[in-house]
Structures are given as C-alpha cells and as structure tokens.
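Risk register update: the risk of archive-format incompatibility is retired. Evidence:
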Amino acid sequence: YNRRRQFYTDLLVRASMYRRRSQSSRSGASPRSTIGEFRSALLPVLLVASIWCFIFWTSLWFSLYDSLSDDVDDNRLFNRRGKGVLAKKLEQFLAGSPSPETVDVRRWEESTIEDSVLRRMVDPDSSSKLQQFLKQSSGGYPNLIIEAFLETALETDGTERLASRASNNPQDLVRTAYPYNRESASSNFDKQGACSRVGAQWTLPTSHPPALDKIFDRNVLRKENMYDHRHALAGISIEKNNFGFCPVDADPFLPWLHDVFPSGDGSFIELVISNKRRCNTDPNKFVSDLINLEPQIALMQPVPVKRGGSGRYVLATSIDDADKDGRQTRFICRFHSSILEGTTLRNIELGETLSTYSYNPEHANYLKRGSKPILTSLEQGHDEQIWNAVWNARCPVPQFVEGDGLTLQAFIASGKTVLHGVPSVYLDLVPVRTPARRTKEGFGIPGVKSTFDPDLVWGDDHYLPSVQASGRLVNIPVCLPPTVERPVIDVGDFELTRPSERKDKTHFLVGCVWAAHSFSTRGQTTISDQSTSSRLLEFLTYHTSIAGFDHVYVYDNSLSNRTLQHVTDLFPRDVVTRIPWPHRVCNNNRPMHSNPGERSSQYAAESSCRARYGPNTLWMASLDVDEYLIPTGNWTSIREWLEHVTRREKKTKILSFYQTRALPNVDTMVIDGIANHVSLDAKIRGGDLVKDPNKTFLETYNCEPTVHPKPQEWAWRAKKQIYNPSYVLNHFVHYSVVSKQVLDNP
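Archived output:
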C-alpha cells in the first residue's frame, strides 16, 4: 500500500514538472527539447511501474498456487473458503485498502472474528454461547452427542456381485443417539463436556451397563446371542428419542470403537477398534452372532477407493487404479464443527479424508506362520489368532488452511479446539461396505497373488452412496492430544502450542496398567475382589520410587462410582495418569471354556496405551497390579539394569521375562486380625488365613515354589515383556504379536 501510494505521488510530481516545462515551452522554449525532456522523465517512471507490476502479479500467482496446492486432494475446500486468496487480494487492491500484512493487529482481530471459521470455533464468547444453546436443546449436554445412522445388511444382485447402493435414500437409515453419563446427572446443567476427562473414550457406546445384565445377559457363562438383543442395544424403538448402548450388533459395519484421540502433531486421529466377532465364538450356541458380525472382519481388510463425480466415491478394481490416499482404506472421515448464528445451529464442514491403517492387518495375518484367514469358518468358531483381537486405524486431519495461514492441524495440536472440556471439532466415520474376504492372501498385498476378483465382486463402476445416505457414526468428539512437551509457537498475533519435534523421547521407561476398583476372576459370577486400591498403591509406589519407571498410566476399568482416582491422586500428575476406561469385558469365561473368554477391554486398553504414549517413550511394559519386575544380582533397580542393556544391546527391541505364580508365605498371615506372634499351628486350627493388614502384598506373596530357571514349556505363556513401542505395532498382554520384523522381514 505504501509503495503504491509513493508510486502515484512520484507520478504526480513528474506530471507537474511536465506541465511547468510545457508552459515554459509555450512561452518561448524549443518544442523538440521539451518533448525530449518529457521522454527522459517518463522512461524511469515506466520502468519502475513495470517492475512493480511484475513483482505484484508474481506474488499473487505464488499465493494462488500455494492455496491450490493445499487443496489438491479436495477442490471443494478451496471453494468453501469463499472468494479465495486471489479474489480477496484483488478486492483490496482495487479498493486501495491495506493488505492483511500491514494492518493493525488489534483492528484485524476485531474485523475477522466473524469471518474466520477456526478463530470463531475457539473464540471463548462464541463457544460459551454455543454451549449454553446446546445445554438447553439437548438435555444438558454442552456439546454434540454421538449418534449412529444404521444401515441394513449388504445384498447381492443374484450372483456373486455386490448390489449397488448408489441410490440409497437417507430416509431409509435408522437414527439413534448415545448420550453419555446418563445416570449421573440430575438436571440439564450438570453434564460434563465430552473432553472433560482424559480422552473421549468414556463417551463411546461399547456395551450396556451391568445393571441391565438381566435384560441383555451377563458377560460370563452367557447363553443368549447378542443378535437377539441387537435392536434394544442399539436403541431402536418406537419412541421419538432412540437412546441406545451399542450400535454394532444392529449395524456390524460400524467400528467397535474403544478409543479416539489426535496425534501429538494434530496430523491424524487415532482409532482403537476391537473385533466384536471374537466375543462369543462357540459354534454350537452363537451361530447368529458369528454370521451377523462378519463385517467386523471386513473392516480389517483394506479396499482401494477413488473419487468419482459429484463428490462420490467409487470402489477401484486395483491398487493402481485407486487414488493415492485411497489405496488401502476403509472409512470416509468427515470433520465438522458447529457455529451458532442467532438461534440457528450451523454445521461447518472442515473437510473429508480417507482412513489409513497403522499397519495392514490382513497383510500381517498373511505373514504369520501357520495362520488361517482372518474370517474363520463357523465350524472353527474361536481361533487363537490373538493379533486379530484389536487393531488401529487413522483419519488424516484435512489440510484446512485459512487465508491468514492458520491450519486445523495446528489448532488441534495446540489443544485450543477444546474449551472447558467441550470439543469444537467432531469426526464422522463412514465405513466403506464390502463383504469380508475369505482368503488368507487377501487383496492388494505386494507380491502376493490373490484369488479374490474385484471385477467379479463389485465391478469397475461401483459407486458408493453419498455420505448422507450411508450408515455411519457421527459427532465423535476430537479431544486433546496426549500430554507431551508443548513449546510455544507464535503465529502472528495468535499464540499456539505444538508438541515437540525432538527425536529423543520424553521418557525412558513407562508402564501401562488396566485395573478396576473391584473385579471378578475368569469364570466367576458372584464373588468379587475389593483389594485393588491397596494393591495399586503398593504397585505404583514400588515401580515409580524403586524400580525407576518414569510414568505409569492407569486405565481405570471401574464400572461404578467407586473408582481408583483416590489412589492415583496421591501421586504427582507427571508420574501417574488415570484414564477413565468404562468399557466392559465382553466375555469373562475361562480360556478353556467351550466359549473361550475374550477380555476385550484389557486388550483395547493396552493398544490405547501403546498408541497414546508410546511415541514419547523408549521402553514400555504392560503389567497387572499384582505383577512386579524385581531386579536380582547386583542391580538395584529395573531402570539401572535396562539402561545397561540399552547401551550394550542396541539392536534389542523386546525383553521377555518368564513368569510363575508366587504363593503367600503363611508365616506372614493372620486369622481375622489375630497377632503375628500366634504359632502357625494355632493359626491353622483357628480358621482361614488372611493377609496381615500391617504387611505389604509384596511381603506376603513372597513364596516362590518354582526355582530358577523357569520352565520353558509352560512359564513362557505367562511371560511379561519390556518392549520398544515404536518397533512393536501390536502388543497382546504377554506377547508382541505384530512388530516391524513381521512386516519387513517375515
């Protein structure tokens, strides 16, 4: 603006000089000399003007190019920005107004708060008004609640080919809602925000509460198929408001989500998904469940997708035919926000992306020695392929960039999209629905010939229905990324924080624990153990103060108001973190039962801990509260020994410890509080022995019946591991079931 103003000033000065000289020529000066002087004066002006125009239009071109480059995968995003960068700059130029680079910061903030989507999303005043509006219109919830649009089962056209769903009608979907924390709120204004706790996992609809076991059957010694209760579980009823507990049995293409959270840099949303088909697998009792839940296997099998006309997606018949970001995908990920305009709630689409996998589950299963297809036959029922119990998908965050350079990814990474525990960004998951493949070699695995024929199954022009006409999960809250070091990054006048990009890790050794205030052992229906609080206190004290763990993450699986928070609050927050984890175990039978147990909640918790906190630690261990890693020999702590191993064995990524069960030392026990000095004979004659409340669990259970070395033929089954979470891609209680070695060097 200043350069343009100076240019016009110089031009006027030179013009006035020309007029004076012209007048002097008319009063007797030579015309030829006057024209020569005019040309000499005009030549530098034209040269400066040409250079200025070249610089101006070149800068406009690069601005336009950068804008279009950001949106190369989604042309509609550029159009949603309104007139775009080029039009705004042209308007500013023609109007003679200052450009944003030179405007006063305070004035710019005031003038753009109504126009900027990202800034308005995180503006405290706008957010507070929106939260109050939602509380009054949605039963006290300050944010949108999770909903599901249920779709009917897939059909064929009479042959093997998948019937077209391109003409699906949105009115054919069944809409259900899943309010969280329903039983704890007594009024419309005491509901917590979906991000008011660590993560959003506690709001996800995974199972019915224990109080309704009489209706839906319990999770041990189960007799009824979940298929028989699918409509009631999903909340399908003749009532106006359909509130449910879990939509997966009613629409098994919906993922059985157990956790969702942003990556530290805000580039993607991590999804921890359990395989619900493994819950009840006795083929003599649960045939309906095994057949109904086959789509849960399909979700683990990538499909190639490309973009067609009118914003629709098409199934590709080969990896090469698919879009670059759709070669191995399974979900359409739609990001959106809400803005209140007067009394109208306006939905703001922030963009769509195609999901990816943290690793290809079908490929990993193929590489496993002696493995079977992921989809086992009904006759086989339950399989021992434990690496297929839980898996992870990722939704890339759209490259939503506003005219001032602020990005959606930066806002999510900074944590500013969550205000007072209430999210301003939501995720919708739209599964790409295809039948589960029954071949072990899958489809699209490099170098592997497959008998699966996509031309036969879905053809070369199989259009997917629009998002509005597709079954889907909506309004999944995007909460804060896992707590990591966040250096401040100054973006103009708007301060953001972003996770550290240091290559070294924040921690050296961390632990993951899945526990509950009370629990029942496998196969137990009536008796519950209430000792977890005292066990956890000792466990945390030992591992953080003696063993040398930097941090322990406690996944609290308490299903009542009595939780483990009173224990975890005794420790500093930078040492112990409690994650509410209300997901129930779907099958608590013993392993050798005809319907073997499936501790789905534990498996998903371990996967969540690795994905959440693994990127910021070198070593990780998953332990129970009754499991201790004790150094022997000259070592005084596990950390000291592990540091030695890390220095000496740089290629070691997994350390295994064979485990056998310790027994209580009867000399340390009492009979219902009788003093320790009573003889053992008196204790035995007097009744049952119990733990002395004045002694620790570690001191009491200090009787090792199995001498070293531990027997390899059976002690390895209960082994525990310390592992490198960047190398281990899937850890299952005792085993590193998928690692980079499996994928890179099978």
